Amino acid sequence: MDSNDPTDETAREALSSTTLSKRIEDASIGDELLFNDQDEPLEIVDTNRYSVTVVDSQGNEYTISQNLQSGKWNVHQHLWWIQVRDE
After folding, report:
1. 3-state SS assignment for residue 48
2. What pLDDT score was predicted for residue 4?
3. Which domain of life is it from (predicted)?
């Protein structure tokens, strides 16, 4: 499989900001999201043009947001891989 194939969870190479944005744009509330090297999926609870709010199984909430100057996505660290699973 292509190393950036969103259905291949083992292939996690850095994606471009454009690819990250497209994947986030396609996400909906209730979808599950994986990012970087985390193995636990997070549930999407809110979305808007420049951010996505997710919650983990313990109820911890995180906001993934886009830096409007650089175009990069961040959540406590530089976001370099993402996958959205349709519910």
Report:
1. strand
2. 52
3. Archaea
With left for phi above 0 and alpha for psi between -120 and 50, is residue 80 left, alpha or beta?
alpha
Could you read off the pLDDT of 25-79 as tens digits, one per residue?
A: 999 999 999 988 788 999 999 999 899 999 999 888 889 999 999 999 988 655 7
CB 15 within 8 A of CB 34: no
Q: In this structure, which CATH number among 2.60.40, 2.30.30, 3.30.70, 1.20.120 belongs to the domain 17-85?
A: 2.30.30
Amino acid, single-letter form, for residue 25: E
